[in-house]
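Entry 12.
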Amino acid sequence: MLVPERFKLVAMSFLAVFICYIDRVNISVAIIPMQEQFGWTESQVGLILGSFYFGYMFTMALGGFLADKYGGKIVLAYGVFFWSIFTILTPVFAYSGFWLLIFIRILMGLGEGITFPSWHALYARWIPFNERTRAIAITNSGISAGTVFGYLATAIIIGVYSWELVFYSFGMFGIVWVYFWHRSIASQPENHPKILKSELDLIQKEAPAKSTADKIPLSKLMCNGPFIAIVIATFCNNWALFTFLSYLPKFVNSPVSIGGLGIDLGSNLFISIILLPSIVSVISLVAGGYMADILIKRGVKTIVVRKTANSFGFYGAALCLYLISFQESIFNIVVLLCLTNLSSGIGAGGFGVNHADLGPKYTGSLVGISGGLGMIAAILSPIVAGLVLESTNSWDLIFNICCGALVFGGTFYLFFASSNKQFN
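Predicted 3D structure (tokens):
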């Protein structure tokens, strides 16, 4: 039985996100021995973790525009290739000085910034509407799968070899991926040499976008309520997401006296605590995507599905994070972290797939612009967390800030989101 070409696209895009995140989160674990070796302060650690997103936010909008206009295949390939090279060079720059490490992290961010708008642009042209939410959810599960692998493999490699080997080995994954991506993917389905006519007919009939985009309607975009709702939701989701991507290993490793869990890096318990919430996230993301597609297919209004899923994700995660502050049992904390990711996964049918509802042929640009603005949170949240730890030694305050962001973002989206086409 032949595998449809659009399924191969989803599988390869999942791997791109997976590689994106193993290269992104490896430093969240490696920073522990690196901080000890180089003598960095907590605020310096926060700056290192946040600097990546200075580059990331600038290429999201550019990547989306280029993918919509010239095709996501080539844009994503260049991004993966260059960020993989920068990953390999990270130890060299770390030994050369603090600010050179900041520089290479910014360059990595520039490479990774094109990832999400590129494959969203591809999906707008390749994935039929009734399969869109699940395809996006499966691809986004690469975030959690990459986080699981990145945390776990980094801890093991550091325990057995060294932190430097983490960056050398992870960077090679991306180089290999580029080779297979180039051989198997096309930006437009009609340009794929191996696609069957039956699949091409289905895609051309049901895919949201059937053309390239000449320009972005910026004047209309920046005063459009439903698009601003996506931007606000992206920002608030990113605040919580990137706080935890950057600081979860450090939270698990930090002393109990300041609200951490006091678990040694590389121990079985450390690995289990990092692993379990991420596994829950992978499963719930895929399940949430399928659930949203099933509800829409059964006649539930798209906007009802979007707002319900989003509210469950934001409010459920906020509640679980708030309750963590009151727990003393490691078991209870792990359960709440798992429930946080369960809520977020079920919210897969919310703001994260809303872009193609508003402007199908501009999907890459909408994802890029909203994601680029949302990356301001990714820059600020690790820096704020580092400053909070340095000045107050309070993990509870970090959790509560994340809760406030999620409640605000969920409420704004609930009132202003739409599934009606806004940009033709």
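Annotation: The chain has a mean pLDDT of 85. The chain is about 80% helix and 0% strand.
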